[in-house]
Design a protein that fits this description.
This is Peptidase S8/S53 domain-containing protein. One of its GO terms (molecular function) is serine-type endopeptidase activity. It comes from Marine Group III euryarchaeote. The chain has 610 residues and is an alpha/beta fold. It folds into three domains: 167 residues, Immunoglobulin-like (Sandwich); 93 residues, Peptidase S8 propeptide/proteinase inhibitor I9 (Alpha-Beta Plaits); 337 residues, 3-Layer(aba) Sandwich (Rossmann fold), CATH 3.40.50. Helices cover 23% and strands 24% of the residues. It contains 14 helices and 28 strands. An eight-stranded mixed sheet has the order 8-7-9-6-10-12-13-14, with helices on both faces. Strands 20, 22, 23, 26, 27 and 28 form a six-stranded mixed sheet that branches. A four-stranded antiparallel sheet has the order 2-3-1-4, with helices on one face. α1 packs antiparallel against α14, α8 runs parallel beside α9 and α10 packs parallel to α12. It is globular.
Length: 610
């Protein structure tokens, strides 16, 4: 099928609507390096790299620098040869993002920055860890009651490693006489070698704890009341991807790329990492464009659901706690996880948004405080740790349960339909802690503290089983552009109170019992009106209810064919205005539902093609 046809149809339909904001003909997203928040002076050398170079031998070996050379193209043999001829050593060649890892003489840095095709020289930096009761507190046991335990799902633990000798991680059934290893493979990024999972090891202690939260069987020492410290998805398998922390971020990206390349071999559906960029004297701007952040975005695009920690920069204490999401938690496509205490209030240490480029983060919250999980080197021991590091693997386990309920879910459907659509809404003002710090200016859902809210495992697995990708629904909300410094930049559409919204749906010929339903931020589901001549919801409309919360909101729409069958959710980020539109714009144009519905169907056609 030629995708140009529906795309052209969509553009023609949008241009035919005089009342809608149509993107300028020359509008396009600027290359990332032109707006990179870590290069404030726009000289092609990141501010952090420049600062480290000015510190003498504090961060690098004498006369050397560890540098990511980032290109506007996938670097080839010629790029490698050019660097080596100039005196640099190429230590890493990325497969999925446009960069080379190098060690180069410091004097070479400004020279390489002037080469054609080189768009940024970036500090490689280092990664570091983001440092029985959580399961019932989060409602994980309610998902277990439905029969889900993670079976058939492999989770990659990208961390310090996993101790394969611990009783809670050595096998699936806690029976030493059976051959059922939990850890399917062990990859060591330092030597770029793959080993049998039975040889799995941890270079520290962090990764073993993380792995047990996700998928530990609970074998070994018990709690004082006799209960076991069972992970969220105890029958999930693991891939140990050891990347931290004696090297640098190059090793971490190497491990991420290994996971992407080998996901089909080992059935890896989820990648979780509780590592963050090592901080220096100042907080590093995070706009989702660092090499590490782009690598995890690429991992999602490859088909992996990725969970990342938000960071532990004491978001609740002061205003400075806002805008503290760490890299790579600032990436656009993964699920970034905040931490809750066991009473389900937001942990004071949990980092908060915005990102440096104004996006809302994190995406969801789970318990991260005082989590008991396997203690590396003890065989049967368990220990308590706190942090978004602990909340993140808990979320990875919930994702494993969700994918077991519906293995056909895509990463986008997990994030946009399940997490965004069915997390339990939480508000920062619900917390009684005196150190509450509200980092959300206009946002109500998602916000910069909880994201879309508290993860709800039972609801996630129930809804996952109902999602049918054959059913599709789409908004027709045209983009809005503003001119900033001579460049047309896409911004959130503004929607007046009580104005009409339109869209389309495709039921693939199935009867539709309930129809299209819309949620405005954290509101309940509102029924839309079917405007299609056939009565099959091909075109639909809804008027913005006057009572819904205003400000920055996420609109969600779903097509419900039956009580146990619905489409993936289509979301739109907008600004709901408190004032009503002029009287002329409040009226429903007779031809508008048809035209906008056709545009939505063109979008659906493209989605099915992809």
């Amino acid at each position: 099928m030629d995708t140009r046809v529906p795309l052209l149809a969509a553009l023609l339909l949008f241009s035919a609507l005089p009342s809608l904001a149509v993107p300028p003909a020359d509008a396009s997203e600027s290359p990332w390096w032109e707006t990179y928040s870590r290069d404030a002076d726009r000289n092609g050398i990141s501010d952090l790299l420049a600062w480290k170079l000015a510190q003498g031998d504090r961060f690098f070996a004498p006369d050397e620098a560890r540098v990511f050379v980032r290109y506007d193209h996938r670097p080839d043999d010629g790029d490698v040869a050019q660097l080596e001829a100039a005196g640099a050593t190429v230590t890493f060649r990325a497969q999925f993002i446009d960069l080379l890892g190098t060690t180069m003489p410091r004097a070479l840095v400004p020279i390489v920055g002037e080469w054609p095709g080189v768009v940024m020289l970036d500090d490689i930096g280092k990664g570091e860890p983001q440092m029985n009761e959580a399961v019932p507190a989060m409602g994980v046991d309610l998902a277990w009651e439905l029969g889900f335990d993670g079976a058939g799902i492999t989770v990659a633990i990208v961390d310090t490693g996993v101790d394969g000798l611990h009783a809670g991680l050595d096998d699936q059934d806690d029976n030493p006489l059976t051959d059922d290893p939990k850890i399917l493979v062990y990859y060591n990024a330092y030597d770029d070698q793959e080993y049998d999972g039975r040889l799995s090891e941890d270079s520290g202690t962090h990764g073993t704890h993380v792995a047990g939260i996700t998928a530990g069987t609970g074998d070994g020492d018990t709690a004082p009341d006799g209960s076991r410290y069972v992970g969220v998805a105890p029958q999930a398998n693991l891939a140990n991807v050891l990347v931290c922390c004696s090297g640098d971020i190059e090793d971490i990206i190497r491990g991420i790329e290994w996971t992407m390349a080998n996901q089909d071999r080992f059935g890896i559906r989820v990648m979780t990492s509780s590592l963050g960029e090592q901080q220096v004297e100042f907080h590093i701007d995070n706009d989702g464009r660092s090499a590490w952040s782009q690598a995890v975005d690429a991992a999602v695009e490859s088909g992996l659901v990725v969970t990342l920690s938000a960071g532990n920069e004491f978001g609740a204490a002061t205003v400075a706690g806002c805008n503290t999401i760490d890299s790579p938690g600032d990436a656009r496509l993964p699920i970034t996880v905040a931490a809750l205490d066991k009473d389900l209030s937001l942990a004071v240490y949990s980092s908060r948004g915005y990102t440096s480029d104004g996006r809302v983060k994190p995406d969801v919250a789970t318990i991260g405080s005082n989590i008991m999980a396997p203690n590396k080197g003890t065989v049967t021991g368990y220990t308590s740790k706190s942090g978004t590091s602990m909340a993140t693997p808990l979320m990875a386990g919930i994702v494993a349960l969700t994918l077991e309920a519906n293995p056909d879910l895509t990463p986008a459907e997990v994030k946009e339909t399940i997490v965004a659509g069915y997390s339990i809404e939480r508000e920062i003002l619900d917390d009684s802690d005196l150190y509450t710090n509200d980092c959300s200016l206009l946002e109500t859902r998602p916000d910069n503290e909880y994201g879309y809210g508290q993860a709800d495992p039972r609801t996630f697995v129930e809804v996952a089983g109902q999602v049918d990708p054959l059913l599709q629904v789409a908004w027709t909300i045209p983009p809005r552009y503003e001119t900033v410094n001579g460049t047309d930049v896409e911004v959130k559409p503004e929607i007046h109170n009580a104005s009409w919204l339109y869209g389309g749906a495709d039921s693939s010929g199935s009867p539709v019992a309930s129809g299209v339903e819309v949620r405005f931020g954290a509101s309940g589901w509102y029924p839309a009106t079917d405007t299609s001549p056939q009565g099959d919801w091909t075109y639909w409309k809804i008027r913005v209810p006057p009572e819904v919360a205003k400000g920055n909101q996420t609109l969600a729409v779903r097509l419900v064919a039956a009580p146990d069958r619905m489409s993936p959710i289509d979301s739109a980020s907008v600004v709901l205005l408190d004032e009503r539109a002029p009287a002329s714009k409040q009226e429903d144009s007779p031809g508008l539902p048809l035209m906008t519905g056709l545009a939505a169907l063109a979008v659906i056609a493209l989605r099915r093609r992809d």
